[in-house]
Amino acid sequence: MSMQVVKSDKLEDALKRNPHLKDYLTKFKKREGTIPNFVPSLTRDMKSLPRPNIIYPVGDPIFIHIWTNRDGDKHYIAIEPRLSEKDEEKFNLIMDKMLELAPYEKVPESDEEMDKLIDKLFEMVTTLTKTQQPVKKKKKFSFGFSFEKVPVTRAEAIKFKYMIKREVVGVGPLEPLVRDPYIEDIHVIGPHNTHIVHKIFEMMPTNIDFKNDLYMAEYLKNLGERMGRPVSERTPIVDGSLPDGSRINIIYSTDVSLKGPSFTIRKFTAVPISITQLINWGTLSAEVAAYLWLCLEYGMSIWVSGETASGKTTTLNAMIPFIKPNSKIYTAEDTPEVQVPHPVWQQLNTRERGEVGKVDLFDLLKAALRSRPDYIIVGEIRGKEGSVAFQAMQTGHPVLATFHAGSVKKLIQRLTGDPINVPITFVDNLNVALIQQAVYRKGQFLRRCLVVEEIEGYYEDIGGVVTRTVFEWDSVTDKHIFRGLYNSYILENKIAQTAGYEDPRQIYEEMMLRARILERMVELKIFDYYEVVKTIWNFYKKGIEGLPFRL
């Protein structure tokens, strides 16, 4: 959903361009006696602010106010133009006139074209005035048009245009939340209860409101139709993707969702988080990342496993650039979340509409196998497609995937049980399992890679699968310990042999070199995903000479 967005980075600019922000601040100061601190963007260290009271822009005319009340509860307030009762008549008149002219214009084919058409029609039916003027009753001409333009002030024009675009191109009341890059999840339970999970300030109630059950039901119907996944009393539960890639789950019917129609959105990050950013946050160490780099360079299969919201997909996306740049990659998913920077990327998505023409992950994986990709990436393995993934690995196609299990033991139990049913003797086709978790440490939620384990194989004499721990997170020091030094089965027995080292132990020096490259990138604050991709790929092409810095 694209609406042309201008960002105000200074408070003076913001106030000049957005009269409603000035009104909000004046009222807030009168009520609370303070003025919020205006910041152009947020940083992670703001997490430790005891009582945040800050405003940040997410693109004119929307600003977000994070405010702590006297009881210490944080609130998320979206500041946007609102129509007063006095505005309604003028707004409706402008809408009517625009709708009269719209059929004579070329039908817009994209959101950008729609955006421009709204601007054009708005200008055709309004005239700018310095002071507010009442609405004149319209005169009709013989062919039905009224040429009387509606007088609007600059402030009214900003407000009306935003409200029209918000409904037509945007996502209505949700627009501020969809635009805010610092939101992870949106939870809406009934028309008057919208909470968000913020990347920095965690869970907060918001001032976003959907009027009543009827308005909200209509709103969700429209949203469902725009996504191509209609909701109704017959299909009250729907999963889909918003145009920006965010995942949405709608529970429409009031007899299913007792507190009124509800939905949850998991926000999609337009640019994936880079591996250096994860190292900087402590999710994993430079050594863990360097180990994954070697594994992906030499075609190992790695599954990122963990509970819900442990950051599995984020980690999976961050390590994809380690795959050689000229590789052919296939992705198979229910909802598109995996992002691949490689030029030869076949992106496949399931189709759930009706029984006829249904395409599930099982079908996608079978199709992927026929085209001999260098890597197959599965968004999330839940069911019988797991056995196809193992067939793929057995025939030499490495597979990257996320999986829902909190430990390697549970992962193996789920793989060998119903409905996946992988024979236990085949489990070693999966080379590495990375277990990730959301941990609570010193009053903060952090995502951490708990262990990286290698799957060595099934041994009949012990009647089980042997795994080796290569990395382990120490919760006391918040550091990752490398247990696999001179003891890694994958590095010594698989990768070093393929790479042709006379002494397999030389592979550890290669790993440490890559860890040093990643550490330097963190030191130099190379966190931008595409810059990280470029650096890694230059190293692939030219070795150390290709790096933009000295080691």
Structure description:
It is a single chain. With 551 residues, the chain is an alpha/beta fold. The chain has three domains: 164 residues, 2-Layer Sandwich (Beta-Lactamase); 85 residues, no CATH class; 223 residues, P-loop containing nucleotide triphosphate hydrolases (Rossmann fold, 3-Layer(aba) Sandwich), CATH 3.40.50. 34% of the residues lie in helices and 23% in strands. It is globular. The mean pLDDT is 91.
User: Main sheet, how many strands, which sense, barrel?
Assistant: 9 strands, mixed
The outline comes out as globular
Percent strand equals 15-25%
Share in helix: 25-40%
The fold-level CATH name of the largest domain is: Rossmann fold
Numbering strands along the chain, what is their spatial order in the largest sheet?
Answer: 15-14-16-17-13-18-19-20-21
CATH architecture classification name of the largest domain: 3-Layer(aba) Sandwich
Rg estimate, integer Å: 27 Å
- The tally of beta strands, per DSSP, is 21
Distance from N terminus to C terminus (CA atoms, Å) equals: 43 Å
Uncertain regions spanning at least 5 consecutive residues:
none
Tally the helices: what do you get? 16
Structural class designation: alpha/beta
CATH class of the largest domain: Alpha Beta
> Total domains, how many?
3
Superfamily at the CATH H level of the largest domain?
P-loop containing nucleotide triphosphate hydrolases
Mean pLDDT: 91
